[in-house]
Amino acid sequence: MARPINLILIHCAATPNGKSLFRGKAGEPGFQTPAEAIDGWHAQRGFRRDPAALPRLNPSLRSIGYHFLIYTNGQIVTGRHTDEIGAHCQGYNQRSLGICLIGTDKFTRAQWESLAYLQTSLAGKYPNAAWKGHRDMSPDQNRNGIVEPFEWLKVCPGFDVSAWLAGGKRPLANHLYEEVAP
Question: Which Pfam family, giving just one, matches this sequence (predicted)?
């Protein structure tokens, strides 16, 4: 049975902008995908997927907290199944999905395009879900109804999700990672 989703949260991996997180070469010992790297980080933090959920999707990712990741090349990969409760934002996991962009605050054009595609796709499936950044879930310490930068517990995802949506889902100024030719 599908669980109700009323919130979709965008995160960043807090890794160097533009760096892929792929390690080694495919098919060789030691090769690791970004999803596997993040799964390892989440295992170290004590995250665990429900063993009953593992056979359904990505059984080798035993700890990953996100439902989707967007690699620097724009590839969208799954972590947890959308029916599985995530481990990406304490207090909000029960009714949310988590999307993680590899990087910190500047993302490749391919990542921005994939995020826009994923947002359109998920908005069709979950039309009543609010879209927020992880930082937007910080407590409103001064109780003025606005979570302001000084109240953020994290800066994740490194950009204003509401501004991105209002701007037509185009890359935000100062948040586009572009390789600089030597």
Answer: Amidase_2
